[in-house]
Amino acid sequence: MCYLSGMPDEDDLCIGPSEDHGDAVTAVAVSPDGRIGATGARSGEIRLWDLRHGLLTAYVGGLQGGPVESAAFIGDARQPRLLTTGPSASLWMVTAEALEWRQFPWDGGRLLTSSDREAVLRQCGDLRWLGVFGSLYGSIKSESPMALGRTASGLIVVSSDEGLIRAWRRPAGETYGDAGLVWAFGGDAADQRLTRCCDGWRLVVSPRRGRVVVLDSESGAVVTAFVPPARPTAIAAHPDRPLVVLGGRDGSLSWWDARSAHCLGRVQAHGGRVRALALATDTDLVMSVSQDGTAALWRLHGRGPAGRFVPPTSSGPRELTHVAGTPDGRCWLVGGRGGQVHVLHWSGHAGLVPQRVGRPSWVMDGGDVETLLDDVRHHWDDGPASVAAVRELASGDLDEAWHGSAVDALTDLIVNGADPATREAAVIALAEIDQGKATTALYQMFGRHDGHGSAGRLLAYFTGEDESTTEELVASLPGIGDFLGVLTSAALGERGAAAVPAVHAALRAFPFPTREDADHWFRDESTKYRLMYALRQAGAAAAPATPTLLAVLEDDEIYRDTRHQAKVTLQAIGLPETADTIAAEVRRRADLVVHHEDGQDDDTEGCSLLLEVLLGMPPAALVASREVGPALEAVRRRLGDGIRTYEDNGEVHEYTVFEIRLADCIDEEIAEQIKR
């Protein structure tokens, strides 16, 4: 193989004594023959181990640029290659004499399978896949990927953090192109980092809220579902059999037939949550490691462990978080939150024998942040548990290494949490860490959850004032920042019809069209945006503001985001009477002929924005409107079939006028609503 880069600098590569990592282990991998092990750390450091003797053979620091997310040995076992991913992806060739390195110019990813010659890597938020021995040849549009798998027919299954699972088929051949979406499965949101494929990649196992769902990997259809005895915190899925092992928050292990949903057995494995599982795929053995610092080897139908490892008591964190082993189950590599690395050997007569016992070398400030984040991610339906975890997380000093993870976990809870008190606690915690991210999360939360009074309670918490009048809140809008601005607007919206007159009057007080003033223009636009956001939150109660909102929509001098807010506010009002008003204006403009000095006439007088508003309104309002039908007829009467032509390099091309396309889409919405 031709490497793009040679060896790392001597300052980065060290061959030295048997030492543990300086911080948390984040990835482990074992070569199929059990000779070489690899561990990655939160700092980006990578270490290689001689597993036969439990010795450190090499360590490399500073190349990942951030935490190592995953590690796996790939390709020919006679010539081991290690793929590591994180902020960047690297391929390592490991020999007795040297460690050769090739870095990929992409920003991280996940491995498909440990025996595959392919990997999926991220680039600019999209997923890209490539042959490890070849060039980039495809991309998948997917946000926040959490787990990946490849089906028997070659579909690539991607699960995302909002609970959505999609299956994609890549373009034929080696030519670069976008993948095609084959199926998608949504429903209740749940952390998808535990999604796995099993049974020859024919089944997708996806933990959801309160249950585990099994999908057919080719169609996305639900095959079965089952309820585990405790919330899963770890999973292992057999690549060739419909076998799934779940580790629970209560320290239990349970074995399941993924096709029939039959429980094959359950044991109380540990005194703390199970943090990781690994299957020896050539046997019926599975290794579990736990928050209590112990590791245990289990047989599928055994009532007790085939072997157990309890490290000697030492200072610092003892939690074990990662494990990998050989297919025959004879060698296991275990990593811990304190940076400790253990090498364990197993045989039928000797049991589980430690070849190397590591010692924690790193103590995290502020308590067990990773465990708290795990609770935040998973207790969306358990208000008190989530609130307790969030408050403990916010009360400690958050290490910079955990900043991004904490922001993501709190944002997920704010957007997806089922309990208002839990969401509000998460907003308070996130605002302390990153107020800008908290502002974005608030918009998402109010878009999904309303009517619970959260905005008023949060505003009172952050301002210390809980008796403000509507007029005082409206008057405060021009002088506050974005975070308090969204809270104040939403609080006004929660007051409904009672607040609409004051909010509407404040919006009407602005001149239309807008006068651009260098000193006040942006402040005024922000204030208009917030006033309309309040009206939007009020919904149908804001109907009296419809004429003013139409004036905002048609103001060419207004900022584009302000105009967009007018559009979505009209759609949020969503009444047939609102549709009537907008459609009547569409018809008036469609019948209006505008003459120009050059003798040309406009096809329409600005109907497209109004048609876009109609298209986004509730279909029931469109059906009940008396004016929408005549308005669409007037547009078609004016534009005919809407087919126009243009010439480009001597060739004549056809296109459909945008207003006609919008009219057709509105008719389709109406027809679908009538069918229902």
TrEMBL record:
InterPro entries membership: ARM-like, ARM-type_fold, WD40/YVTN_repeat-like_dom_sf, WD40_repeat_dom_sf, WD40_rpt
A Pfam family annotated for this UniProt entry: WD40
Residue stretches of each WD repeat: 18-59, 267-300
Keywords, alphabetical: WD repeat
Keyword Protease (UniProt): no
Sequence intervals crossing the membrane: none
Protein name: WD40 repeat
